[in-house]
Amino acid sequence: MTSTKSDLEGKYILERDVWADGPPHELFRQMRGECPVHWSPGMTEFPEEAGWWSVTRPDDIHAVSRDFKTYSSELGGVTVMNTGFPVEYSRAMFIGMDPPKHDRLKMLFQAGFTPKRIAAHEERIREIARTVLDRLDGRDSCDLVADVAQPIVSRVIGCFMGIPEEDDHTWAVLMNEMLGAGDPDLNPDGIDAIMEKMVPQLFERCGKLIAERREHPTDDLTSVLVNAEIEGERLEDHEIVMGFFLLVAAGNDSTKATYCSGMRALMEHPDERAKVLANPSLIPSMVEESLRMFPAFAHFRRTATVDTELNGAQIKAGDKVVMWYVASNRDETLYEDPDRFDVERNPEHQAFGAGGRHFCLGTALARLELRIMFEETLARYPKMAITGQPTYVESGFINQLKTLPVTLQ
Fold first, then answer.
1. If 0-12 CB within 10 Å is exposed, 13-18 middle and 19+ buried, where does residue 4 land?
2. Which of 52, 86, 183, 279 sits a CA distance of 20 to 30 A from 198?
3. 3-state DSSP call for residue 311?
């Protein structure tokens, strides 16, 4: 079927049916080829939301990412939707700040996330992965999302943040509800529940940790937040809470998402899995291919500060500009046969952003976790197989599976 440019004019690309089976890769392919900076007038489910520009090619996303003066993270928030989450809370996280405040706050955490510091945690992360997999002994099947990925990533980020292990599940549920708030399975109460129920719970639970760290400081990242100073001033409580939320949410969702989709791809491509099983040294390359094909976050947003032009599109001051990593990571001009899962490709990609000030702080941790999780799972269950229909979280923001039923073999 031949498509025309008029097919894309006024296209509502964030409708539920468009994302029912995950990112609409065919639609993004068309947008890259015909209208790489595309205007969407809004979404029918939330008519109060303003329209936005979709950026789908790597070079354009790279340009937006590196020009914080023209494309602000602070002005309007970092996701395409404003509904449900006030921009004031977004601005309390360094992901929702512009320089210089962004740089000063992010720098407080840089020392804890250097590759050398992260590598020192390898033994502990491997122990966590093995402990979780040990719980499957005697079982014939499991859900790879709920039974393996979730408890591993929860405990890893819990260790970094100083969260007691018995609270891992509670924090995981809250993070899943907040980031997947549009999914009726994860959040049956609807988008309004973010402010009515979830944010108050976040402040209550985090407030207890803040009080404990003020009285008894430790070397965890929560203590870093509690004792942080920007220009000689301590962070306010809401800034500490939102900084905590950012780190826990990122730790909860990013690795879980890419691991589960990468494992699914291995099971659906037995020839590729056979390569990895025969040569485990391919696992780091497979990690990068999984990140390319299955970035944990489908998009992040900026807001134009001035009238500008991007690849022929006339962008007005105040317009939303949305960078679609699920599109740029499958660009035909960069990757041969981009929809093919190739464990030997070892690609560069934009799963962690596209450079600039907001490049992901946790890249070294995510890569280490993914490598260990793939290594330990494949060593334990080299013939694992999908036994039911995987389902996606209903979201145009978090790009992850909600269920992945498998047999253990």
1. exposed
2. 52
3. coil
How far apart, in whole angstroms, are the C-alpha atoms of residue 249 and residue 79? 14
The 10s digit of each residue's pLDDT in 215-224 is 998 888 888 8
DSSP 271-283: HHHHHHHH-GGGH
CA-CA distances (angstroms) from residue 89 to 200, 244, 284, 358, 408? 13, 12, 36, 17, 42
Q: How many CB atoms lie within 10 A of CB 284?
A: 15
Q: Over the stretch 232-283, which tens digit does the pLDDT of each residue have?
A: 878 888 888 888 999 999 988 889 999 999 999 999 999 999 999 999 999 9
Can you spell out the DSSP letters for 353-402? BSSSTTS-TTHHHHHHHHHHHHHHHHHH-TT-EE-S--EE-S-SSB--EE
341, amino acid identity: F
Please name the amino acid found at residue 386: I
**What DSSP state is assigned to residue 5?**
G
Phi/psi at 274 (5° precision): -60, -35
Between strands 71-72 and 52-55, the pairing is unpaired
Q: pLDDT digits over 189-217, tens only?
A: 988 999 999 999 999 999 999 999 989 98
In 157-289, at which residue ranges do the beta strands (DSSP E only) sit? 229-230, 233-234
pLDDT at 331: 98
Residue 118 binned pLDDT confidence (cut-offs 50, 70, 90) = confident
Largest CA distance in the chain: 66
Per the CB < 8 A criterion, the answer to whether 370 and 156 are in contact is: no
Contacts of 91 (CB under 8 A, 6+ apart): 74, 97
